[in-house]
Amino acid sequence: MFAAVDLGSNSFRLHIGEPDGSRMRIVRSARDPIRLASGLDAQGMLDDAAIARALRCLTDFGAILREYRLDAVRVVATNTLRLARNAADILPRAEQAIGHPIEIISGEEEGRLIYMGVARALDDAAERRLVVDIGGGSTEVVLGQGAQVQAVESFTVGTHDQSAAYFPDGRITAAAFKAAVLAARARFEDAADWYRAQPRDAVYGSSGTMRAIAEVIARNGMGDGTMSMPSLKALRDVLVELGHVAAFDLPGIKQERVPVMVGGLTVLIGVMQELGIERVNAINAGLRLGVLSDLELRANQHDRRDQAVLACMRRFGVDEERAARAATLACELHARLGPREAHLQRQLAWSAMLHEVGLAVSHSGAHKHAAYIVEHADLPGFTTSEQRAMATLVLGQKGNLRKIRAELAAPETARAVLALRLATMLMHAHVDKRELAELKLRMEADIEICAPASWSARHPTVETWLGKERAAWNEVGRPCSVRMV
Asked: pTM of the entire structure?
């Protein structure tokens, strides 16, 4: 049984699901419309009231999660926490409230997870589909076929900003609505020609806002009763005629969600006009189901991150055999330095596989180029914090350690850095895995490295490399001794 928590710009939501064949059976759901985006001020800081609402909700969600025996829990945060300048200060309190780590995911990763959820619900391997998700702070557009994502983009336009900018006092006029639609269209126009040219069998709307719009149209007989352009314009006309969000009292939506629907409607009309979409099918699947599906895949040893690393290596022309050798050596050395922690072993292995991507830029300072690529590349399945941690390891693979001195204060990071440095050194010196048993290694308050004297003849550069290693650690205040016996 798995749990997914989505910290969105409009609402925080929770799903607990249990795999049931090809489906995911949802056994518990919770939602709290905390309107996080409304607490973001002009300086990009979340205010105290919004933070308090978030912490209260997360405390409640934590209590729900503790009621179940869960195999894995994943908490993901989207656009507002991507933007909030004080997110790093808030996260420790938020994680304590819910009792689990919180991952701030990129817009592209959000889009991929949304698509995974839709694909899981539809289970049609042949269908070519476009998925559009309109959130509080961003809109994700994803093209794919069956379970495979072909293209994903995140656009910085959402329900909150549209409502706040064009209907700030709740008043709805024809002029304001037209301006809002044009502003939304401007966000999508650069990508429009490409998306228009791609074949598709259907278009799906996966967000709660989409489902609310579809429900209002269907229950009130607007247009043809579906999310077609005539129906959306009919809904627009009703809103303009009423003139204020408070006057909207039709079946299909709660009053508190009307402002969100109005902003979402302007985005939906804008994206449909720009991308040449005639009709959108609302579907009750998206980010949370995608997170649950991803957790199930990881539990079954089908981790998307492995494929992301391989794709990145191939994009930058990395020698796969050398990368695999470095990863094998690094993981073997790391296992000798302390307890085996699965997530650290995996991060180290991925870092080793990617440690030479910087060679595609330049041999000079390749480790610095590699660290930048690892931190900033679009790697499906990885969170920002995971990529930052891997970039630290990659940056520390060679040369002085002053550049990561602060990070080395964490023992687990120091162990991983030492393992990767020694692995790359031994690989360059042509020491193979069979000889690794001859190397003695200990890392506590100080570091002890003992290599056989016979290596000097077999691998002439080893002694030089080990001397540099000793100097690098001593320079950052970590006593290191090296012996060849």
From this structure: 0.82
